[in-house]
Amino acid sequence: MVVFALRGAAWFSLPSNGKTRMRSLVVIGGGPRAAGLLERIAAQSPALPLAVHVVDPFPPGAGRVWRHAQSPLLRMNSMAEDVTVFTDSSFDGEGPIRPGPSLAEWTDVDPVSFPSRQVQSRYLEWFFDHVRKSLPPNISVTVHRATALKVVGNWVWLDNGTSLQGDVVVLALGHLDADPEPEHRKLAEHASEHGLVYVPPLYSADADLSAVHGDVVLRGFGLAFIDLMVLLTEGRGGRYVRGPEGLTYVPSGAEPTLYVGSRRGVPYHSKTGYRLQGTRPALPHFFVASELQGQELDFRADVWPLMAKEIAWGHYHELFTGHPGLVRMPFVEFAASFTALPWYSDEMRELEELAVPDPADRVDFERLDRPLAGVTFRTAEEFQEHLRAYVEADIARRSDPRYSADLGAFLALLSVYGQLAGLMPFDGWWHGYFSYLASGPPPDRLEELLALSRAGIVRFLGADMWVEAEDDAFVAGSATTPDVVRANGLIEARLPTHSLSRTADPVLRSLRAVGDISEDAAGLVRVSPVGRLVKENGDEDPVRFAVGPYTTGKAYAAFARPNTNAPAFRQNDLLAREILKVLGD
Protein backbone atom coordinates (compact mmCIF):
# COMPACT_ATOMS: atom_id res chain seq x y z
CA MET A 1 0.00 0.00 0.00
CA VAL A 2 1.09 3.53 -0.62
CA VAL A 3 1.04 6.62 1.51
CA PHE A 4 1.19 10.15 0.14
CA ALA A 5 1.96 12.45 3.04
CA LEU A 6 2.21 16.20 3.31
CA ARG A 7 3.62 17.09 6.71
CA GLY A 8 2.30 20.00 8.74
CA ALA A 9 -0.67 21.40 10.56
CA ALA A 10 -3.71 23.41 9.52
CA TRP A 11 -3.40 26.03 6.78
CA PHE A 12 -2.42 29.45 7.94
CA SER A 13 -0.17 32.39 7.01
CA LEU A 14 2.90 32.75 9.19
CA PRO A 15 2.93 36.25 10.59
CA SER A 16 6.73 36.51 10.33
CA ASN A 17 6.97 36.23 6.56
CA GLY A 18 3.42 35.75 5.26
CA LYS A 19 4.22 32.44 3.57
CA THR A 20 1.84 29.50 3.48
CA ARG A 21 2.95 26.62 5.67
CA MET A 22 3.65 23.16 4.19
CA ARG A 23 0.50 21.01 4.05
CA SER A 24 0.16 17.27 4.66
CA LEU A 25 -1.85 14.70 2.74
CA VAL A 26 -1.68 10.96 3.45
CA VAL A 27 -3.01 8.55 0.82
CA ILE A 28 -2.83 4.92 1.87
CA GLY A 29 -2.68 2.60 -1.13
CA GLY A 30 -0.28 2.94 -4.04
CA GLY A 31 -1.68 1.35 -7.16
CA PRO A 32 -3.01 3.05 -10.28
CA ARG A 33 -5.83 4.70 -8.31
CA ALA A 34 -3.33 6.54 -6.10
CA ALA A 35 -1.27 7.57 -9.12
CA GLY A 36 -4.41 8.83 -10.87
CA LEU A 37 -5.43 10.83 -7.81
CA LEU A 38 -2.00 12.45 -7.62
CA GLU A 39 -2.23 13.32 -11.33
CA ARG A 40 -5.57 15.06 -10.78
CA ILE A 41 -4.17 16.96 -7.77
CA ALA A 42 -1.28 18.14 -9.94
CA ALA A 43 -3.70 19.05 -12.76
CA GLN A 44 -5.39 21.60 -10.50
CA SER A 45 -2.01 23.42 -10.21
CA PRO A 46 -2.34 24.01 -6.47
CA ALA A 47 -0.31 26.89 -5.11
CA LEU A 48 0.16 25.56 -1.59
CA PRO A 49 3.39 23.67 -0.78
CA LEU A 50 2.86 19.90 -0.63
CA ALA A 51 5.38 17.29 0.52
CA VAL A 52 4.18 13.91 -0.75
CA HIS A 53 5.43 10.68 0.81
CA VAL A 54 4.61 7.42 -1.00
CA VAL A 55 4.76 4.32 1.21
CA ASP A 56 4.11 0.90 -0.31
CA PRO A 57 5.69 -2.56 -0.16
CA PHE A 58 4.93 -2.85 -3.88
CA PRO A 59 6.09 -0.57 -6.73
CA PRO A 60 4.18 2.72 -6.83
CA GLY A 61 1.84 3.05 -9.78
CA ALA A 62 1.48 -0.69 -10.30
CA GLY A 63 0.79 -1.68 -6.70
CA ARG A 64 0.16 -5.23 -5.60
CA VAL A 65 -2.25 -6.45 -8.27
CA TRP A 66 -0.27 -5.06 -11.21
CA ARG A 67 3.23 -5.64 -9.83
CA HIS A 68 5.83 -6.87 -12.29
CA ALA A 69 6.79 -9.80 -10.05
CA GLN A 70 4.19 -12.26 -11.33
CA SER A 71 4.11 -14.95 -13.97
CA PRO A 72 4.83 -13.63 -17.49
CA LEU A 73 2.11 -16.04 -18.70
CA LEU A 74 -0.63 -13.96 -17.06
CA ARG A 75 -2.19 -11.43 -19.41
CA MET A 76 -4.67 -8.60 -19.37
CA ASN A 77 -8.23 -9.20 -20.47
CA SER A 78 -8.25 -5.83 -22.26
CA MET A 79 -6.76 -4.95 -25.63
CA ALA A 80 -3.82 -2.54 -25.59
CA GLU A 81 -5.82 0.15 -27.37
CA ASP A 82 -8.52 -0.04 -24.70
CA VAL A 83 -6.28 0.94 -21.78
CA THR A 84 -5.32 4.47 -20.78
CA VAL A 85 -4.53 6.36 -17.58
CA PHE A 86 -4.94 9.82 -19.16
CA THR A 87 -7.87 12.17 -19.63
CA ASP A 88 -8.80 13.07 -23.19
CA SER A 89 -11.28 15.23 -25.08
CA SER A 90 -14.21 13.14 -23.84
CA PHE A 91 -13.49 14.12 -20.21
CA ASP A 92 -16.15 16.47 -18.78
CA GLY A 93 -14.80 16.90 -15.25
CA GLU A 94 -14.04 20.33 -13.89
CA GLY A 95 -10.28 19.80 -13.87
CA PRO A 96 -8.14 20.40 -16.95
CA ILE A 97 -7.52 17.72 -19.59
CA ARG A 98 -3.98 16.36 -19.59
CA PRO A 99 -3.71 13.84 -22.44
CA GLY A 100 -1.13 11.12 -22.79
CA PRO A 101 -0.45 7.79 -24.52
CA SER A 102 -2.66 4.74 -24.23
CA LEU A 103 -0.99 1.44 -23.42
CA ALA A 104 -0.88 0.62 -27.15
CA GLU A 105 0.77 3.95 -27.99
CA TRP A 106 3.22 3.72 -25.10
CA THR A 107 4.38 0.19 -25.91
CA ASP A 108 3.99 0.39 -29.70
CA VAL A 109 2.35 -3.04 -29.77
CA ASP A 110 -0.51 -4.34 -31.89
CA PRO A 111 -3.47 -2.22 -30.68
CA VAL A 112 -5.80 -5.24 -30.64
CA SER A 113 -3.38 -7.53 -28.77
CA PHE A 114 -3.80 -8.51 -25.11
CA PRO A 115 -0.49 -7.63 -23.42
CA SER A 116 0.95 -9.40 -20.41
CA ARG A 117 0.32 -7.98 -16.97
CA GLN A 118 4.03 -7.35 -16.72
CA VAL A 119 3.76 -4.93 -19.66
CA GLN A 120 0.85 -3.17 -17.97
CA SER A 121 2.92 -3.02 -14.78
CA ARG A 122 5.67 -1.10 -16.57
CA TYR A 123 3.11 1.29 -18.08
CA LEU A 124 1.64 2.03 -14.66
CA GLU A 125 5.06 2.47 -13.07
CA TRP A 126 6.02 4.84 -15.89
CA PHE A 127 2.78 6.79 -15.36
CA PHE A 128 3.54 7.31 -11.68
CA ASP A 129 7.06 8.46 -12.51
CA HIS A 130 5.69 10.73 -15.27
CA VAL A 131 3.25 12.33 -12.83
CA ARG A 132 5.97 12.81 -10.23
CA LYS A 133 8.30 14.50 -12.73
CA SER A 134 5.54 16.75 -14.04
CA LEU A 135 4.61 18.11 -10.60
CA PRO A 136 5.23 21.80 -9.96
CA PRO A 137 8.18 22.66 -7.66
CA ASN A 138 5.88 23.30 -4.68
CA ILE A 139 4.94 19.57 -4.60
CA SER A 140 7.55 16.94 -3.73
CA VAL A 141 7.27 13.13 -3.66
CA THR A 142 9.34 10.67 -1.61
CA VAL A 143 8.81 6.88 -1.96
CA HIS A 144 9.01 4.59 1.11
CA ARG A 145 8.70 0.80 0.73
CA ALA A 146 6.61 0.03 3.81
CA THR A 147 3.08 -0.90 4.89
CA ALA A 148 0.58 1.24 6.78
CA LEU A 149 -0.57 -0.56 9.92
CA LYS A 150 -3.06 1.77 11.56
CA VAL A 151 -4.58 5.23 11.51
CA VAL A 152 -5.09 7.01 14.82
CA GLY A 153 -6.41 10.54 14.56
CA ASN A 154 -4.43 12.11 11.75
CA TRP A 155 -1.38 9.89 12.29
CA VAL A 156 -0.55 6.93 10.03
CA TRP A 157 1.73 4.30 11.57
CA LEU A 158 4.00 2.21 9.33
CA ASP A 159 5.57 -1.20 9.76
CA ASN A 160 9.08 0.25 9.53
CA GLY A 161 8.58 1.99 12.87
CA THR A 162 7.92 5.46 11.46
CA SER A 163 4.72 7.51 11.36
CA LEU A 164 3.24 10.21 9.15
CA GLN A 165 0.91 13.02 10.12
CA GLY A 166 -1.69 14.23 7.64
CA ASP A 167 -4.05 17.16 7.44
CA VAL A 168 -6.04 14.89 5.13
CA VAL A 169 -5.94 11.08 4.93
CA VAL A 170 -7.16 9.18 1.85
CA LEU A 171 -7.58 5.40 1.73
CA ALA A 172 -6.90 4.17 -1.82
CA LEU A 173 -6.38 0.55 -0.84
CA GLY A 174 -7.40 -1.23 -4.04
CA HIS A 175 -8.53 -4.87 -3.92
CA LEU A 176 -8.27 -6.33 -0.43
CA ASP A 177 -7.98 -9.68 1.31
CA ALA A 178 -10.59 -10.85 3.77
CA ASP A 179 -10.69 -13.30 6.63
CA PRO A 180 -12.14 -16.69 5.60
CA GLU A 181 -15.88 -17.13 5.66
CA PRO A 182 -17.20 -19.95 7.89
CA GLU A 183 -17.58 -22.33 4.94
CA HIS A 184 -14.01 -21.75 3.83
CA ARG A 185 -12.68 -22.37 7.36
CA LYS A 186 -14.53 -25.69 7.52
CA LEU A 187 -13.20 -26.76 4.12
CA ALA A 188 -9.66 -25.82 5.13
CA GLU A 189 -10.00 -27.81 8.34
CA HIS A 190 -11.28 -30.83 6.41
CA ALA A 191 -8.32 -30.59 4.02
CA SER A 192 -5.87 -30.39 6.90
CA GLU A 193 -7.40 -33.36 8.71
CA HIS A 194 -7.40 -35.62 5.63
CA GLY A 195 -4.23 -34.62 3.81
CA LEU A 196 -6.10 -32.78 1.05
CA VAL A 197 -5.39 -29.46 -0.65
CA TYR A 198 -7.67 -26.45 -0.25
CA VAL A 199 -7.04 -23.00 -1.77
CA PRO A 200 -9.47 -20.31 -0.52
CA PRO A 201 -10.57 -17.30 -2.59
CA LEU A 202 -7.56 -15.12 -3.36
CA TYR A 203 -5.68 -13.50 -6.22
CA SER A 204 -4.37 -16.15 -8.56
CA ALA A 205 -0.90 -14.58 -8.78
CA ASP A 206 -0.62 -14.87 -4.98
CA ALA A 207 -1.77 -18.50 -4.71
CA ASP A 208 0.65 -21.22 -3.61
CA LEU A 209 -0.19 -24.01 -6.05
CA SER A 210 2.86 -26.19 -5.38
CA ALA A 211 0.82 -28.86 -3.56
CA VAL A 212 -1.91 -29.03 -6.23
CA HIS A 213 -1.76 -32.43 -7.98
CA GLY A 214 -4.11 -35.23 -8.98
CA ASP A 215 -7.82 -34.54 -9.38
CA VAL A 216 -8.72 -31.00 -8.38
CA VAL A 217 -12.10 -29.23 -8.32
CA LEU A 218 -12.19 -25.53 -9.24
CA ARG A 219 -15.29 -23.65 -8.13
CA GLY A 220 -15.69 -20.64 -10.43
CA PHE A 221 -15.50 -20.17 -14.21
CA GLY A 222 -14.44 -16.53 -14.56
CA LEU A 223 -11.10 -14.78 -14.95
CA ALA A 224 -9.63 -16.27 -11.78
CA PHE A 225 -10.21 -19.72 -13.28
CA ILE A 226 -8.48 -18.71 -16.52
CA ASP A 227 -5.41 -17.55 -14.57
CA LEU A 228 -5.33 -20.74 -12.52
CA MET A 229 -5.77 -22.82 -15.67
CA VAL A 230 -2.72 -21.11 -17.19
CA LEU A 231 -0.56 -21.51 -14.09
CA LEU A 232 -1.43 -25.20 -13.62
CA THR A 233 -0.88 -26.21 -17.25
CA GLU A 234 1.40 -24.04 -19.37
CA GLY A 235 2.94 -22.82 -16.13
CA ARG A 236 4.00 -26.40 -15.42
CA GLY A 237 5.73 -26.93 -18.71
CA GLY A 238 2.89 -27.85 -21.05
CA ARG A 239 2.73 -26.24 -24.48
CA TYR A 240 0.31 -25.58 -27.32
CA VAL A 241 0.82 -26.58 -30.93
CA ARG A 242 -1.29 -25.18 -33.76
CA GLY A 243 -1.94 -27.54 -36.65
CA PRO A 244 -4.53 -28.34 -39.34
CA GLU A 245 -6.97 -29.52 -36.66
CA GLY A 246 -6.60 -26.35 -34.62
CA LEU A 247 -4.87 -25.88 -31.28
CA THR A 248 -3.52 -28.96 -29.48
CA TYR A 249 -2.14 -29.17 -25.96
CA VAL A 250 0.99 -31.19 -25.30
CA PRO A 251 1.13 -32.06 -21.59
CA SER A 252 4.30 -32.02 -19.52
CA GLY A 253 2.95 -34.67 -17.17
CA ALA A 254 2.97 -32.32 -14.18
CA GLU A 255 -0.58 -31.06 -14.68
CA PRO A 256 -3.47 -31.96 -12.36
CA THR A 257 -6.86 -32.81 -13.82
CA LEU A 258 -9.07 -29.75 -13.42
CA TYR A 259 -12.82 -30.23 -12.82
CA VAL A 260 -14.49 -26.84 -13.23
CA GLY A 261 -18.04 -25.69 -12.58
CA SER A 262 -20.02 -22.68 -11.38
CA ARG A 263 -23.53 -21.33 -10.98
CA ARG A 264 -23.84 -20.79 -14.75
CA GLY A 265 -21.59 -23.70 -15.64
CA VAL A 266 -20.01 -21.86 -18.59
CA PRO A 267 -16.95 -19.58 -18.91
CA TYR A 268 -17.15 -15.82 -19.25
CA HIS A 269 -17.83 -14.65 -22.78
CA SER A 270 -14.81 -13.98 -24.97
CA LYS A 271 -13.71 -10.43 -25.66
CA THR A 272 -14.79 -9.16 -29.07
CA GLY A 273 -12.17 -8.89 -31.79
CA TYR A 274 -13.80 -6.34 -34.09
CA ARG A 275 -14.80 -2.68 -34.20
CA LEU A 276 -18.21 -1.08 -34.74
CA GLN A 277 -19.45 -1.39 -38.33
CA GLY A 278 -22.10 1.32 -37.99
CA THR A 279 -22.31 4.71 -36.32
CA ARG A 280 -21.42 5.12 -32.65
CA PRO A 281 -24.50 6.00 -30.56
CA ALA A 282 -24.54 8.85 -28.07
CA LEU A 283 -24.69 7.23 -24.63
CA PRO A 284 -26.44 7.21 -22.24
CA HIS A 285 -29.73 7.29 -24.11
CA PHE A 286 -32.39 5.79 -21.83
CA PHE A 287 -30.57 5.10 -18.56
CA VAL A 288 -29.53 8.46 -17.09
CA ALA A 289 -28.75 7.94 -13.43
CA SER A 290 -28.95 11.63 -12.56
CA GLU A 291 -32.66 11.60 -13.45
CA LEU A 292 -33.25 8.89 -10.83
CA GLN A 293 -31.32 10.53 -8.00
CA GLY A 294 -33.23 11.10 -4.78
CA GLN A 295 -35.83 8.38 -5.42
CA GLU A 296 -36.37 5.22 -3.39
CA LEU A 297 -35.49 2.56 -5.92
CA ASP A 298 -35.75 -1.19 -6.16
CA PHE A 299 -32.99 -2.51 -8.42
CA ARG A 300 -35.00 -5.23 -10.18
CA ALA A 301 -38.26 -3.31 -10.50
CA ASP A 302 -37.06 0.25 -11.15
CA VAL A 303 -33.44 0.22 -12.30
CA TRP A 304 -32.72 -2.97 -14.21
CA PRO A 305 -35.50 -2.50 -16.84
CA LEU A 306 -33.99 0.88 -17.80
CA MET A 307 -30.49 -0.58 -17.81
CA ALA A 308 -31.63 -3.48 -19.98
CA LYS A 309 -33.28 -1.10 -22.44
CA GLU A 310 -30.08 0.97 -22.63
CA ILE A 311 -27.93 -2.09 -23.36
CA ALA A 312 -30.42 -3.35 -25.93
CA TRP A 313 -30.41 0.10 -27.54
CA GLY A 314 -26.63 -0.13 -28.00
CA HIS A 315 -27.07 -3.57 -29.56
CA TYR A 316 -29.82 -2.60 -31.99
CA HIS A 317 -28.26 0.75 -32.90
CA GLU A 318 -25.21 -1.14 -34.18
CA LEU A 319 -27.30 -3.88 -35.81
CA PHE A 320 -29.43 -1.41 -37.79
CA THR A 321 -26.71 1.08 -38.70
CA GLY A 322 -23.94 -1.45 -39.29
CA HIS A 323 -25.91 -4.33 -40.84
CA PRO A 324 -29.02 -2.97 -42.58
CA GLY A 325 -29.34 -6.20 -44.58
CA LEU A 326 -30.11 -8.12 -41.37
CA VAL A 327 -33.21 -6.12 -40.44
CA ARG A 328 -36.65 -5.55 -41.95
CA MET A 329 -37.32 -1.85 -41.36
CA PRO A 330 -35.50 1.51 -41.37
CA PHE A 331 -33.75 2.38 -38.12
CA VAL A 332 -35.75 5.60 -37.70
CA GLU A 333 -38.99 3.60 -37.68
CA PHE A 334 -37.60 0.96 -35.29
CA ALA A 335 -36.09 3.58 -32.96
CA ALA A 336 -39.38 5.44 -32.63
CA SER A 337 -41.27 2.31 -31.58
CA PHE A 338 -38.39 1.06 -29.38
CA THR A 339 -38.29 4.39 -27.53
CA ALA A 340 -42.01 4.35 -26.79
CA LEU A 341 -42.17 0.80 -25.38
CA PRO A 342 -41.08 -0.54 -21.96
CA TRP A 343 -38.33 -3.14 -22.24
CA TYR A 344 -40.33 -5.84 -20.49
CA SER A 345 -43.50 -5.84 -22.59
CA ASP A 346 -45.15 -8.11 -25.13
CA GLU A 347 -45.17 -5.21 -27.58
CA MET A 348 -41.37 -4.90 -27.39
CA ARG A 349 -40.98 -8.61 -28.13
CA GLU A 350 -43.34 -8.26 -31.11
CA LEU A 351 -41.32 -5.32 -32.39
CA GLU A 352 -38.09 -7.33 -32.17
CA GLU A 353 -39.59 -10.29 -34.00
CA LEU A 354 -41.02 -8.03 -36.71
CA ALA A 355 -37.85 -6.02 -37.26
CA VAL A 356 -35.12 -8.63 -36.62
CA PRO A 357 -35.75 -11.92 -38.45
CA ASP A 358 -32.84 -13.95 -37.01
CA PRO A 359 -33.30 -14.82 -33.30
CA ALA A 360 -29.49 -14.83 -32.99
CA ASP A 361 -29.59 -11.06 -33.59
CA ARG A 362 -32.16 -10.35 -30.87
CA VAL A 363 -31.35 -9.52 -27.25
CA ASP A 364 -32.32 -12.10 -24.64
CA PHE A 365 -30.74 -11.23 -21.29
CA GLU A 366 -32.26 -14.20 -19.47
CA ARG A 367 -30.92 -16.72 -22.00
CA LEU A 368 -27.52 -15.05 -21.88
CA ASP A 369 -27.47 -15.20 -18.10
CA ARG A 370 -28.28 -18.91 -17.74
CA PRO A 371 -27.51 -20.77 -20.98
CA LEU A 372 -27.70 -24.18 -19.23
CA ALA A 373 -30.96 -23.53 -17.35
CA GLY A 374 -33.18 -26.60 -17.67
CA VAL A 375 -30.61 -28.42 -19.82
CA THR A 376 -29.45 -31.86 -18.65
CA PHE A 377 -27.29 -34.63 -20.09
CA ARG A 378 -27.28 -38.35 -19.46
CA THR A 379 -23.50 -38.56 -19.13
CA ALA A 380 -20.57 -36.26 -18.42
CA GLU A 381 -19.13 -37.06 -21.86
CA GLU A 382 -22.22 -35.73 -23.62
CA PHE A 383 -21.89 -32.53 -21.64
CA GLN A 384 -18.18 -32.16 -22.50
CA GLU A 385 -19.10 -32.21 -26.20
CA HIS A 386 -21.96 -29.77 -25.70
CA LEU A 387 -19.89 -27.22 -23.79
CA ARG A 388 -17.00 -27.44 -26.25
CA ALA A 389 -19.48 -26.61 -29.03
CA TYR A 390 -20.85 -23.73 -26.92
CA VAL A 391 -17.36 -22.27 -26.40
CA GLU A 392 -16.45 -22.72 -30.07
CA ALA A 393 -19.62 -20.84 -31.07
CA ASP A 394 -18.82 -18.05 -28.62
CA ILE A 395 -15.29 -17.63 -30.01
CA ALA A 396 -16.64 -17.59 -33.57
CA ARG A 397 -19.35 -15.04 -32.77
CA ARG A 398 -16.98 -12.71 -30.92
CA SER A 399 -14.51 -12.86 -33.84
CA ASP A 400 -17.00 -12.24 -36.68
CA PRO A 401 -17.85 -8.58 -37.52
CA ARG A 402 -21.25 -9.81 -38.67
CA TYR A 403 -22.11 -9.89 -34.94
CA SER A 404 -20.72 -6.46 -34.11
CA ALA A 405 -24.05 -5.66 -32.42
CA ASP A 406 -22.52 -7.46 -29.43
CA LEU A 407 -19.89 -4.70 -29.30
CA GLY A 408 -22.66 -2.11 -29.41
CA ALA A 409 -24.24 -3.80 -26.40
CA PHE A 410 -20.86 -3.88 -24.67
CA LEU A 411 -20.36 -0.13 -25.06
CA ALA A 412 -23.84 0.54 -23.68
CA LEU A 413 -23.06 -1.85 -20.84
CA LEU A 414 -20.02 0.26 -19.94
CA SER A 415 -22.15 3.40 -20.00
CA VAL A 416 -24.62 1.85 -17.58
CA TYR A 417 -21.90 0.48 -15.31
CA GLY A 418 -20.19 3.83 -14.99
CA GLN A 419 -23.35 5.53 -13.74
CA LEU A 420 -24.66 3.02 -11.24
CA ALA A 421 -22.38 3.64 -8.27
CA GLY A 422 -23.55 7.22 -8.02
CA LEU A 423 -27.14 6.01 -7.88
CA MET A 424 -27.22 3.03 -5.52
CA PRO A 425 -25.06 0.13 -4.25
CA PHE A 426 -24.45 -2.61 -6.77
CA ASP A 427 -26.87 -5.50 -6.89
CA GLY A 428 -24.82 -8.68 -6.39
CA TRP A 429 -26.35 -10.37 -9.42
CA TRP A 430 -25.71 -7.35 -11.65
CA HIS A 431 -21.99 -7.14 -10.85
CA GLY A 432 -21.51 -10.81 -11.71
CA TYR A 433 -23.59 -10.48 -14.87
CA PHE A 434 -21.58 -7.47 -16.00
CA SER A 435 -18.31 -9.35 -15.50
CA TYR A 436 -19.66 -12.41 -17.30
CA LEU A 437 -20.66 -10.38 -20.37
CA ALA A 438 -17.99 -7.66 -20.45
CA SER A 439 -14.90 -8.84 -18.54
CA GLY A 440 -14.18 -12.12 -20.26
CA PRO A 441 -10.83 -13.46 -21.43
CA PRO A 442 -9.13 -12.97 -24.80
CA PRO A 443 -10.46 -15.44 -27.41
CA ASP A 444 -7.20 -17.40 -27.55
CA ARG A 445 -7.57 -18.24 -23.85
CA LEU A 446 -10.85 -19.97 -24.67
CA GLU A 447 -9.11 -21.77 -27.54
CA GLU A 448 -6.61 -23.02 -24.97
CA LEU A 449 -9.50 -24.09 -22.74
CA LEU A 450 -10.86 -26.17 -25.62
CA ALA A 451 -7.46 -27.73 -26.25
CA LEU A 452 -7.14 -28.64 -22.57
CA SER A 453 -10.64 -30.12 -22.64
CA ARG A 454 -9.83 -32.26 -25.66
CA ALA A 455 -6.63 -33.41 -23.92
CA GLY A 456 -8.61 -34.45 -20.84
CA ILE A 457 -6.80 -31.95 -18.59
CA VAL A 458 -9.96 -29.86 -18.04
CA ARG A 459 -13.33 -31.46 -17.34
CA PHE A 460 -16.60 -29.48 -17.21
CA LEU A 461 -18.90 -30.13 -14.25
CA GLY A 462 -21.95 -28.04 -15.21
CA ALA A 463 -24.35 -25.47 -13.77
CA ASP A 464 -25.57 -25.02 -10.18
CA MET A 465 -22.40 -26.72 -9.04
CA TRP A 466 -22.20 -28.13 -5.51
CA VAL A 467 -19.23 -29.21 -3.39
CA GLU A 468 -19.13 -31.28 -0.20
CA ALA A 469 -16.37 -32.42 2.14
CA GLU A 470 -16.82 -36.17 2.48
CA ASP A 471 -14.51 -38.61 4.27
CA ASP A 472 -11.08 -38.29 2.67
CA ALA A 473 -12.11 -36.29 -0.43
CA PHE A 474 -13.90 -33.31 -1.85
CA VAL A 475 -17.01 -34.40 -3.76
CA ALA A 476 -18.55 -32.24 -6.49
CA GLY A 477 -21.36 -32.38 -9.00
CA SER A 478 -24.00 -30.25 -10.67
CA ALA A 479 -27.57 -30.12 -11.90
CA THR A 480 -26.38 -30.66 -15.47
CA THR A 481 -25.25 -34.31 -15.31
CA PRO A 482 -25.67 -37.17 -12.82
CA ASP A 483 -21.91 -37.68 -12.58
CA VAL A 484 -20.13 -37.04 -9.27
CA VAL A 485 -16.41 -36.34 -8.93
CA ARG A 486 -14.14 -37.23 -6.00
CA ALA A 487 -11.01 -35.10 -5.78
CA ASN A 488 -8.05 -34.60 -3.48
CA GLY A 489 -8.06 -30.84 -3.97
CA LEU A 490 -10.47 -27.90 -4.06
CA ILE A 491 -9.62 -24.42 -5.36
CA GLU A 492 -11.99 -21.49 -4.97
CA ALA A 493 -11.47 -19.91 -8.40
CA ARG A 494 -12.63 -16.44 -7.49
CA LEU A 495 -11.57 -13.33 -5.65
CA PRO A 496 -12.38 -12.94 -1.97
CA THR A 497 -15.59 -11.10 -1.20
CA HIS A 498 -14.54 -8.12 0.85
CA SER A 499 -16.55 -6.92 3.79
CA LEU A 500 -15.48 -4.49 6.49
CA SER A 501 -16.44 -6.90 9.26
CA ARG A 502 -14.08 -9.55 7.81
CA THR A 503 -11.38 -7.30 6.39
CA ALA A 504 -7.78 -8.41 6.66
CA ASP A 505 -6.54 -4.87 6.15
CA PRO A 506 -4.99 -3.49 9.37
CA VAL A 507 -5.82 0.14 8.59
CA LEU A 508 -9.53 -0.58 8.13
CA ARG A 509 -9.47 -2.69 11.28
CA SER A 510 -7.95 0.15 13.29
CA LEU A 511 -10.60 2.59 12.11
CA ARG A 512 -13.44 0.13 12.70
CA ALA A 513 -12.27 -0.52 16.26
CA VAL A 514 -13.03 3.09 17.23
CA GLY A 515 -16.12 3.64 15.09
CA ASP A 516 -14.42 5.94 12.60
CA ILE A 517 -15.63 3.85 9.68
CA SER A 518 -18.83 1.97 8.86
CA GLU A 519 -20.22 -0.52 6.33
CA ASP A 520 -23.38 -0.89 4.30
CA ALA A 521 -25.54 -4.01 4.11
CA ALA A 522 -23.12 -5.57 1.61
CA GLY A 523 -20.09 -4.96 3.82
CA LEU A 524 -18.70 -2.09 1.76
CA VAL A 525 -17.08 0.91 3.42
CA ARG A 526 -19.60 3.75 3.43
CA VAL A 527 -18.50 6.97 1.79
CA SER A 528 -20.27 10.21 0.93
CA PRO A 529 -20.78 11.29 -2.71
CA VAL A 530 -17.43 13.09 -2.61
CA GLY A 531 -15.69 10.13 -0.92
CA ARG A 532 -15.66 11.14 2.75
CA LEU A 533 -15.63 8.27 5.24
CA VAL A 534 -18.95 7.86 7.03
CA LYS A 535 -18.49 7.07 10.70
CA GLU A 536 -20.46 4.53 12.72
CA ASN A 537 -22.61 7.36 14.14
CA GLY A 538 -23.46 8.57 10.61
CA ASP A 539 -21.23 11.64 10.63
CA GLU A 540 -19.05 12.39 7.62
CA ASP A 541 -15.37 12.60 8.47
CA PRO A 542 -14.10 16.11 7.67
CA VAL A 543 -10.55 15.08 6.71
CA ARG A 544 -10.55 11.34 5.85
CA PHE A 545 -11.61 9.93 2.50
CA ALA A 546 -11.76 6.51 0.83
CA VAL A 547 -11.94 5.40 -2.80
CA GLY A 548 -11.84 2.01 -4.49
CA PRO A 549 -13.67 -1.30 -4.97
CA TYR A 550 -14.12 -1.88 -1.22
CA THR A 551 -16.26 1.29 -0.87
CA THR A 552 -19.83 2.18 -1.76
CA GLY A 553 -18.35 4.28 -4.59
CA LYS A 554 -16.72 1.19 -6.07
CA ALA A 555 -17.97 1.26 -9.65
CA TYR A 556 -14.88 2.60 -11.32
CA ALA A 557 -11.77 0.81 -12.53
CA ALA A 558 -8.56 2.79 -11.99
CA PHE A 559 -7.79 2.92 -15.73
CA ALA A 560 -10.17 2.93 -18.65
CA ARG A 561 -10.89 2.84 -22.37
CA PRO A 562 -9.89 6.02 -24.22
CA ASN A 563 -12.60 8.47 -25.31
CA THR A 564 -15.20 7.19 -22.85
CA ASN A 565 -15.26 10.05 -20.31
CA ALA A 566 -14.01 7.50 -17.82
CA PRO A 567 -15.89 7.52 -14.49
CA ALA A 568 -12.66 6.82 -12.57
CA PHE A 569 -11.05 9.97 -13.92
CA ARG A 570 -14.11 12.05 -13.04
CA GLN A 571 -14.14 10.53 -9.56
CA ASN A 572 -10.42 11.26 -9.11
CA ASP A 573 -10.97 14.84 -10.28
CA LEU A 574 -13.82 15.41 -7.82
CA LEU A 575 -11.84 13.88 -4.97
CA ALA A 576 -8.72 15.89 -5.78
CA ARG A 577 -10.66 19.17 -5.74
CA GLU A 578 -12.34 18.25 -2.44
CA ILE A 579 -8.97 17.41 -0.89
CA LEU A 580 -7.46 20.71 -2.01
CA LYS A 581 -10.51 22.54 -0.67
CA VAL A 582 -9.93 21.00 2.75
CA LEU A 583 -6.23 21.79 2.59
CA GLY A 584 -7.10 25.41 1.91
CA ASP A 585 -5.96 25.94 -1.67
TrEMBL record:
Identify the species of origin: Lentzea albida
Write down what this protein is called. Answer: FAD-NAD(P)-binding
Q: Which SUPFAM superfamilies does this entry report, sorted A to Z?
A: FAD/NAD(P)-binding domain
Return the InterPro entries for the record: FAD/NAD-bd_sf, HpyO/CreE_NAD-binding, L-asp_N-monooxygenase_NS-form
Where does the FAD-dependent urate hydroxylase HpyO/Asp monooxygenase CreE-like FAD/NAD(P)-binding domain start and stop, copy by copy?
26-175
* A Pfam family assignment: NAD_binding_9
Could you list the residue ranges forming a coiled coil in this record? Answer: none
